[in-house]
Backbone:
């Protein structure tokens, strides 16, 4: 029985992760990025702050994993390039509009401006998988794909900051028409 | 002599404002948006925290006034529309790259996602003057101008968050070519 002692003390890892990710988004949605402290997230997830810090060394690392979970799986890209990119942008816009997701996203980018370790995590864990898929799919330079990601993500987050609401569908479509000109 | 007592206790209002704005950008640049507390900004400006709160009811309000000061005056727009808009975008990109400005800008937008009062300040004090000038100049719908502002500001700030550095000139030019397609 000795072998099961440590796991019987808690929930399975995947269950705990799901509870923590849900609690993170709920706290960010209710209290804002700055207000959603590790203490409050731990309490909302029904776990100890020490347990959180064993899995995520910083709030930024937890937010990035929460976003990775919220944005998984990435939708498949069909054969028609403009239609596939439009679909991907609509998918991102809808995700950013989910409770807590836009605020968590905007908050972690803001923290990253002055935090090199967080930028490294954002770049390697969060952005790189999308960058690789889009580069393969489009056959365009990395510089152009990074600009595409900056434009769609930056625009959606700026709109959230200015209005507190996701971007209206008509504006998402206008942004899609504009951003596709990067690949013409 | 009684009448001059209160002003002789401190610096003229405009000098104090300039010292506080400079201290705000310096603290944000050194400590990040979250780390630049009202306490630290007051100490760096050589004034009392109570003095700051008499002029700015919140950190968000102080950051917005600091940014307004950093972005004044807005450059004049010449007669050639594409050239004038390109010039305005280059001006914004250079400003966002000044020490503390990009981080202050990204931080206040992130806070605003969950703070309606701050969004109101951002919208009326910060965005509206540019919106009015651009609407008059371009003769385009407000919806289109707001999208233009979201795209250029959001893209520049997202790049700062991902790289910690201002956008390279070649990317600024690619963004300009793309965003001008909104007005064709």
Residues:
């Amino acid at each position: 029985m000795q072998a099961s002692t440590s796991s019987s003390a808690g929930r399975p890892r995947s269950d705990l992760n799901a509870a923590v990710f849900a609690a993170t988004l709920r706290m960010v949605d209710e209290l804002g990025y700055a207000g959603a402290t590790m203490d409050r997230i731990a309490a909302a997830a029904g776990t100890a702050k020490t347990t959180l810090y064993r899995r995520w060394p910083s709030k930024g690392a937890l937010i990035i994993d929460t976003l990775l979970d919220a944005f998984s799986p990435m939708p498949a890209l069909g054969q028609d390039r403009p239609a596939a990119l439009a679909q991907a942008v609509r998918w991102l816009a809808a995700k950013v509009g989910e409770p807590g997701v836009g605020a968590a996203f905007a908050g972690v980018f803001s923290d990253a401006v002055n935090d090199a370790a967080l930028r490294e995590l954002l770049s390697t864990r969060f952005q790189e998988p999308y960058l690789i898929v889009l580069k393969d799919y489009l056959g365009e330079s990395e510089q152009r794909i990074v600009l595409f990601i900056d434009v769609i993500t930056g625009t959606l987050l700026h709109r959230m900051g200015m209005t507190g609401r996701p971007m209206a569908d008509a504006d998402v479509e206008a942004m899609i028409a504009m951003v596709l000109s990067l690949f013409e």
